[in-house]
Amino acid sequence: MNGSQVPPRFPSSQEVHVWIAKEDLSSRMVSTFSRVLTEDELKRINKLRFQRHRLAHVFAKGMLRHILARYLDVQPSKVVFILNSFGKPFLCPADHAPSLMFNMSHSDGLVVLSVAINRHLGIDVELVRVLHDRDGMVQDYF
Q1: Cα distances (Å, whole numbers) of residue 30 to 76, 110, 120
Q2: Who has greater pLDDT, 1 or 140?
Q3: Residue 8 lies in a domain
Q4: What mean pLDDT is predicted for residues 42-67?
Q5: Which element (helix H / strand E) includes 66?
Q6: 10 lies in a domain?
């Protein structure tokens, strides 16, 4: 992601933009993304038990900041979030008009981000695992 790229146009009222990225946990990318995160974001990330999870969160939060910064035409470190009572981040409404809304999910090396105007969003990504003994599991638990 290059900060000199032209900002994407805002979604129309009928559109949702979906961004998909494969995690890049290289030291270069993690270093780049770590520099744009806030002290609070880094504190929360550093509380995670496993290094792999910490790196994945740095990538996801950094990607979020870089993409939203392109829409807002600001530096990624200047994107301001507020958290609701459940800890879900939203863009600070006073700083970002029109009301750009987003939702993000990441799992097993994949990050997805949805972006829209004036609409609450939900997006999820999960690794699909093959169950080799599905019938046995059904008998054991159901």
Answers
A1: 14, 15, 29
A2: 140
A3: no
A4: 96
A5: helix 51-72
A6: no
Instruction: Give the helix/strand (H/E) hosting 33.
Output: helix 27-34
Instruction: Identify the residue whose tokens are 């550093």.
Output: 46
Q: How many domains does the chain have?
A: 1
- The answer to whether residue 2 scores a pLDDT higher than 50 is no
Q: In Å, how far from its chain's centre is CA 120?
A: 15
Domain carrying residue 110: 17-141
Pairing of strands 17-22, 81-83: unpaired
Q: CA 45, 87, 65, 21 torsion: positive or negative?
A: positive
Question: Is 107 part of a structural domain of the chain?
Answer: yes
The tens digit of pLDDT for each residue in 58-116 reads 999 999 999 999 998 899 999 999 888 998 888 987 665 568 899 999 999 999 999 99
| CATH code of residue 82 | 3.90.470.20
Q: Decide if 12 is inside a domain.
A: no
